[in-house]
Amino acid sequence: MLDTRILIGLISLLIAMSSVVYVGINEPSRQDEFKQTFAGREVETGAAIFEEFCFPCHGVKGVGIPGVAPALNDAHFFTNRLQEIGYPGSLESYVKSTIAGGRPIQSAEGPYPQNMPAWSTEFGGPLRHDQVEAVAAYVLHWGEFYKEGSEAPLPATSVECDTPEECGQVLFQTLGCVGCHVIAGEGGAVGPELTNVIGEQGEDFVRQSILNPNAVITEGFQPNIMPQNFDERLSDDDLNSIIAYLASVGQ
Amino acid sequence: MDIPGMGFVNNLFEKGVKQTVSDKIDETTRAVLAGIGVKETRALLRGEAPTEKPNPRYRAQVKSFMLHIRPKFYQEGSTWFTHTFRLGMLSTLLFVIETITGLILMVYYTPAPEIAYFDMLNILSNVNYGKFMRDMHRLGAELMVIFVTLHMVRVYFTGSYKHPRQFTWLTGVVLLLLTLFLSFSGYLLPWDQLAFWAVTIGTSMADAAPLVGYQANLILRGSQDIGAGGLLRFYLLHVLLLPLVAIIFISVHYYKVAREHSISLPAAIEEGEAPPAKVAAAKRKIDILPDLLTSELMWISVVTTAMIVAVSFFYSAALEHHADPLKTPLHTTAPWYFLWLQGMLKLGDKTWWGVIIPTIIFLILFAVPYIDPGPSRLAKNRKAGVTVGILTSIVIVVLSFMGTGLWGVAAPPAVELVQEFIPEEGVGLIREIPYEEMFIGQYHTDDPNTWPAGELGLVFSEMAEAAHRESEKADNNFFEGKMMMEIEQWSPVLKRLTITVLWEEIPEGSTTNERVENSYKKIFFFHENANYRLLE
């Protein structure tokens, strides 16, 4: 007579072995699923970092800001950029090393007076290794949509605005002004705060400073940092909208 | 025929093939099973009487090291399930499971902040059975804390710590501490937010220790804050020092049981309170071979199987975002087995409630057999002891509850509202919605016409309720709360969710009770493939 305890032990051993086999059979698909999930989450993390640190220069969704920094979310970047500068490595290594180490010399094309700073903590920047990886994953994920035969990407930015104040606010974001100028407590500190600039300096002064930034340099700030080409890039309506927005903030 | 040096071949001719082969198998079995042959193995498995004289089972206990460290027999009463619940043995089993799974995980793990988290991702997405091993290890650790604690509770309530087992109790309390530290030191290794902040809180306790606090904290963390040094130290504690010390204490603990005083009998048996027939039954000897071993193997098989099934189908250890020393997640809590300590910290001063009082508690725990020297183990003769035990258990449960985020929450209502639906770590209601059902649009809790369809709509109506609930509360300076949600297609595989909480509040220091508007905004991204339910 077989001991019941042995029977119970053997049955549970069989259950255990079947479970292990079941897990084993599912391993390849489970691993694929995890790879995809982690890749997706990395893009999410990268997006959050990009839209916090990188958009002031590279624009919302990386569409670039003329005169400040080139577009990353466009076909040229993913198809021709490496040949253009003669970089022998992969786009991935190009993106990662540029994020980590910045751009110590002037970019080859375009008037980009600011050099990109180093972002990795390794070179004195604020981002950890894993964060640099995540930003790179976000930037590279746009590449999927510029491959041959793939559907055209979504319009990179959708500008929807009704009043001049609203349009001005959108322009203030998309042109990257907010990257250097503080308005109502938000924005960068590279240029002077603009919350009350219309009230303090008058509208004409502001128009002049946008179109010809070096005309007057506020004490404590550097010349040649602000893009010099807004007179070419902004329509009269755009300029009026920005002025309207600045005036509305100062009230 | 007699060929020199060819005994096996000679036997073939003399005894025939069948006999020779079965003799050889028997010989090999005896060599492997410490003198127990084929026939005897069969008898063992069937629970039959020994087949040879002298009893080969006793001989095996002398020859085999693994059997030698076991006692020859137990008294039946000490093996009754309701007396021990097999908790000591199962704790040992878990220690073995932890060692095996831990060794396998070590193969794929590097204790360095730049690498550790990526190693975790690798274990989960590239290593065959990687997730299985990790979940087993994690589940085993949690069960080990439970079993070791319950073992102590059992020993306390059956009065088994009394003479002659005082020292065994003491080593047991050391093992409880070692189990807690083993679990806690392993907590840091995945190097995610959960790990980093739980351990930051834990080690900050060391910092609060009087006189030596600063140094103790430095020694543990390797610097002011947890970094590369701290991770390496915790790793070495986890894989080397603590297991080594645990092995020594398990050995000492078990040697006392096996060689000196055995497992206690139920108090009623020992002190003659039970009917004589029961006492006689309880004092019958049970041999290790085969009775006890069979029973143990069954329990080992059943518990291991239960764990394997749990890990294969239900249980999954979480992995949060990469550790970020600059960003403290909302509602950081200690691991559940330290919640009582976190609860105590909410009572007052860190030095007193976090260090001095817990130390006193453990000192009292160590000294239990010496504080309570009364000879009787019967509950009715130690009413004070049993009462203190029950009260302590209740207090620990209450303190643990106080340690959870549910008690004494500090974040403002707007932050809590967002956290409630889409927590910084983990899943939450919104992340459970499939990507396709995160419909593009702008939704406002005030205007039901804008509410989305499907699961998103259900969640959103709950958000409206929650905003209303918070507005109704009298003491939180949060009036007319509303929530807005905007979902944008950010790239073909990415959506952006902006949650805004709008409310009115009375500014601090205001004397007129006039309310002003305020808002809180938080942005999240959702990737098509980021399935958060996977690690839940």
Q: Measured on Cα atoms, how large is the radius of gyration of chain B?
A: 30 Å
Shape of chain B: globular
CATH architecture of the largest domain in chain A, by name, is: Orthogonal Bundle
Number of domains of chain B: 3
Structural class assignment of chain A: mainly alpha
Mean of residue pLDDT values of chain A: 85
Number of strands of chain B: 6
Q: What percent of residues of chain A adopt helix (DSSP H or I)?
A: 40-55%
Order of helices and strands of chain A: HHHHHHHHHH
**Based on DSSP secondary structure assignment, what is the total number of beta strands of chain A?**
0
Brief synopsis:
Chain A has 251 residues and is an all-alpha fold. Chain A folds into two domains: 41-146, Cytochrome c-like domain (Cytochrome Bc1 Complex, Chain D, domain 2, Orthogonal Bundle); 164-250, Cytochrome c-like domain (Cytochrome Bc1 Complex, Chain D, domain 2).
Describe this structure in words.
The complex is a heterodimer of chains A (251) and B (536). Chain A folds into two domains: 41-146, Cytochrome c-like domain (Cytochrome Bc1 Complex, Chain D, domain 2, Orthogonal Bundle); 164-250, Cytochrome Bc1 Complex, Chain D, domain 2 (Orthogonal Bundle). Helices cover 53% and strands 0% of the residues of chain A. Chain A has ten helices and no strands. Chain A is elongated and about 100 Å long. The model of chain A has no long low-confidence stretch (mean pLDDT 85). Chain B is of the alpha+beta class. Chain B folds into three domains: 7-68, no CATH class; 73-324, Cytochrome Bc1 Complex, Chain C (Up-down Bundle); 413-535, no CATH class. Chain B has 22 helices and six strands. In chain B, α7 runs antiparallel to α9 (130-157). Chains A and B meet through α1 and α5 of A and α8, α16, β4 and β6 of B.
